[in-house]
Design goal:
By secondary structure, the chain is mainly alpha-helical. The chain has 17 helices and no strands. Pfam families: Ammonium_transp.
Length: 479
């Protein structure tokens, strides 16, 4: 989200329509995290379903908590590092935000924030982005991570990686106490003579960030037992399809809500989000048919997510035709990219790298080619630096590349160090016996599908605790 995309004028009152849309969009984005839990949960094996879903749900608890304490202030507080980080203590515990005026500076309670959006609405909208950014990383380490270690990781990673990256990328002139970090304001001007990089709803801060982090953690934890030697097929494609549908539904809040107002820009972003997702699904399925001879439901669901990822940064600065191109490129490109883990030997369990990192790069870089005044931002009467295909030269493409690869490298390096530190101190990976029996039992003492009642037993379905006790007894351990 770039400062150029914001409403042209500030209103001196609370705009109930804009506020209602932002709060509704925040609810849609929050709903995406349970949708992600279903999407990821269906893709793993039966013995890991609950653990996979819990990794998403615990992110809601931990990240929501630290966001209120210091996360919001670190991401959107006054800049203390030349566009690198916000002051985590300025709004600690949301101090001065609930009764803030324009700029979220403590004063009277009678004036509104920019665009008629009160401070708490902006806080609510941004926290759900932080939650799902963290949850996305979990797909790379399915089937083998300790739940306690993952819980600790969510807090540390959000603090050291996501909050700073959000500060770099997002520019909210008037909506927060700062006007954006170095990527939003300076990326192109640093050596290309251009403006900042465009990232309307989080292609770099969320998807490239999470994809690079997923790769780092996959390398720290190592491969699953049997990786590339035995089939590890999704256990429930119905859950995958339902999860993908929820993600598509919620993503309209993710992208169109980032306009922070119910107007022409939000409407155009909505259309672009739909357009790219449609062609991405078609592109993925086409690659599958040509390569494997089949159209699969998993491919359709994955194509949907790839298109949503790619259009996230570009949805406000490309035309509807441009959105169709972005989606098609992402669907086909990500379908090919998911095979990289077998070629290079890293176990990215649920293709976080192939979909989120690659899809985020495709969408972010294509802005440098396809950005145009005939976009939702241009239609709203705001300035757009046009891309190469519209006569804008290479400056915007350079800004996009600098922003994308800066976040990629930063996220990978810091995440690797965080993961390694946790792995060396408390242990990040379960032992082989627990991985073999399944992390649902070893980490949560539960099973997703209790079928004991179908075995002819006297008492019908048994409890998860009984099942765990029996498993331990068979291994010679005390129940």
């Amino acid at each position: 989200m770039n400062a150029l995309t914001l409403a042209a004028a500030d209103t001196p009152f609370i705009d109930s329509g804009n506020t209602a849309w932002v709060l509704a969009a925040a609810a849609l984005v929050l709903f995406m995290t349970p949708g992600l839990a279903l999407f990821y949960g269906g893709m793993v094996r039966t013995k890991s379903v609950l653990n996979m879903m819990m990794m998403s749900f615990i992110s809601m608890g931990t990240v929501g908590t630290v966001w209120i304490l210091w996360g919001y202030s670190e991401a959107f507080g006054p800049d203390v590092g030349g566009g690198l980080i916000g002051n985590p203590f300025t709004h600690f515990g949301l101090k001065g935000v609930l009764d803030a005026i324009y700029g979220f500076v403590p004063a009277t309670k009678t004036a509104a924030a920019a665009g008629g959006i009160p401070g708490p609405a902006f806080v609510a909208f941004q926290v759900v982005f932080a939650i799902i950014a963290v949850a996305l990383v979990s797909g790379a380490i399915a089937d083998r991570a300790k739940f306690t270690a993952w819980t600790v990781f969510t807090v540390v990673w959000a603090t050291l990686v996501y909050f700073p990256a959000a500060h770099w990328v997002f520019a909210f002139s008037g909506y927060a106490a700062q006007t954006g970090g170095w990527i939003a304001n300076k990326a192109g001007g640093m050596f290309l003579g251009g403006a900042g990089a465009y990232d309307f709803a989080g292609g770099t801060a969320i998807h490239i960030n999470a994809g690079a982090a997923g790769l780092a953690l996959a390398l720290v934890l190592g491969k699953r037992i049997g990786f590339a030697k035995e089939p590890m097929r999704p256990h429930n494609l119905t859950l995958v399809m339902i999860g993908a549908g929820i993600l598509w539904f919620g993503w309209f809040g993710f992208n169109a809500g980032s306009a922070l107002g119910a107007g022409a820009q939000a409407a155009g972003v909505w259309v672009n989000t739909l357009a790219a997702t449609c062609t991405a699904m078609l592109g993925w399925l086409l690659v599958e048919k040509l390569r494997d001879g089949h159209f699969t439901s998993l491919g359709a669901a994955s194509g949907i997510v790839a298109g949503l990822v790619a259009i996230t940064p570009a949805c406000a600065t490309v035309s509807p035709i441009g959105a169709l191109i972005v989606g098609l490129a992402a669907g086909a490109g990500c379908a090919l990219a998911v095979g990289l883990k077998f070629r290079f030997g890293f176990d990215d369990s649920l293709d976080v790298v192939g979909v989120h990192l690659v899809g985020g790069l495709i969408g972010t870089l294509l802005i440098g080619l396809l950005a145009t005044k005939g976009s939702p931002t241009g239609a709203a009467g705001l300035t757009v630096n046009e891309g190469l295909f519209y006569g804008g030269g290479l400056s915007q493409l350079g800004a996009q590349a600098l922003g994308a690869f800066s976040v990629l490298i930063f996220s990978f390096v810091v995440t690797y160090l965080i993961g390694l530190a946790i792995h060396k101190t408390m242990g990040f990976r379960v032992d082989e016996a627990d991985e073999a029996q399944g992390v649902d039992l070893s980490e949560h003492a539960e099973t997703a599908y209790d079928l004991s009642g179908l075995s002819g037993g006297r008492f019908g379905s048994g409890s998860a605790v009984t099942t765990t006790a029996s498993a331990k007894t068979k291994e010679g351990a005390p129940a």
